[in-house]
Design a protein that fits this description.
Blueprint: E1 10-14, H1 18-29, E2 33-37, H2 41-61, H3 66-74, E3 76-79, E4 90-93, H4 99-110, E5 118-121, H5 128-132, E6 141-145, E7 155-160, H6 166-178, E8 182-187, H7 194-210, H8 216-226, H9 233-240, H10 242-256, H11 265-272
Parallel strand pairs: 1-2, 1-4, 2-3, 4-5, 5-6, 7-8
Antiparallel strand pairs: 6-7
Helix pairs in contact: 1-2, 7-9, 7-10, 10-11
Length: about 290
């Protein structure tokens, strides 16, 4: 099984969205060869462009050399099939936040990867134990929850499933440190630590706005100036994506069975209207470029 001293040199990231492309970037800048897999070739092109822009910003800030940027880009290979993962020591899935979709990725990967390869999920709320049920060797499955934007945010929540081995946990802790991140080990409960604490706060901000306690700007100002938060809760929800917030609250409400996690009706209405935040150009605030 996994050795805590194992040196991971080749990895596969499945899902070339915002999180997947960010994860591929930090792996590559640490000198790890990465196959970035997505069935959508246009998404792969967008991911490559996003990674290039991100690396260019690091060069402009002086935190990365032009040579290191070029070396990192050369280590990332776009692929449309998971078969590219043959022989890799690690797979990180960053596909849509859906149990069935994530289990399908792990099931496919299990036929391609070595039996000793580690399988990590970037899920923000789904049970790692449930994900691990899709493969043999569930002791090699765990959560590796990065935060957006991945190249900037230091935290990685390392989530142990019911059957995750200590060797697997420590191997991923060591990898996160190699990536320049700060790993924090938590156990497999809905929302883990980060979203179990964050989403009820955001949800209460939604209720506060819906009930007319204050205007959106006032709610955000109170939390920024009074609690020293860098972003107000409504701004942050727009940044995360209101559909993502709703999904996580639904997971917490369903799996913990406590009405304190009941999603605010205002949030449901905004998601139904397609007002999802920054990614659609409009949420609680307007950002321009709204689609639809």
């Amino acid at each position: 099984m996994a050795d805590t001293e194992r040196d991971i040199n080749r990895a596969t990231v499945v899902g070339a969205g915002t999180m997947g492309s960010g994860i591929a970037q930090v792996l590559a800048t640490a000198g790890i060869e990465v196959d970035l897999v997505d069935v959508d070739t246009s998404q792969l092109l967008r991911a490559q462009a996003a990674i290039e822009r991100s690396l260019d910003r690091l060069v402009q800030k002086g935190s990365l050399t032009a040579r290191a940027r070029d070396q990192s880009l050369a280590l990332i290979r776009p692929k449309t099939k998971i078969d590219a993962a043959i022989g890799h020591e690690l797979l990180i899935e960053a596909v849509t936040e859906d149990l069935t979709a994530k289990q399908a990725v792990f099931a496919q990967a299990a036929h391609v990867l070595p039996e000793t390869a580690l399988l990590a999920s970037n899920t923000s709320s789904i049970s790692i134990t449930a994900l691990a049920s899709a493969v043999s060797g569930p002791e090699r499955v765990l959560g590796m929850h990065f935060f957006n934007p991945v190249p900037v945010m230091k935290l990685v929540e390392v989530v142990r499933g019911q059957l995750t081995s200590e060797a697997t946990t420590q191997a991923i802790v060591a990898l996160a440190q190699r990536l320049g991140k700060t790993p924090v080990v938590v156990n497999d409960y809905p929302g883990f630590v980060s979203n179990r604490l964050l989403l009820p706060m955001l949800n209460e901000a939604f209720f506060t706005l819906m009930e007319g306690v204050a205007e959106k700007e006032a709610i955000d100002q109170v939390m920024k100036l009074g609690m020293n938060h860098p972003m107000g809760p409504l701004e942050l929800a727009d940044f995360i994506g209101l559909d993502v917030c709703l999904h996580i609250l639904e997971v917490l409400h369903r799996d913990l069975g406590d009405d304190k996690y009941r999603p605010c009706p205002l949030l449901r209405r905004m998601v139904a209207a397609g007002r999802l935040g920054r990614k659609t150009g409009v949420g609680f605030y307007e950002y321009g470029g709204r689609r639809g």
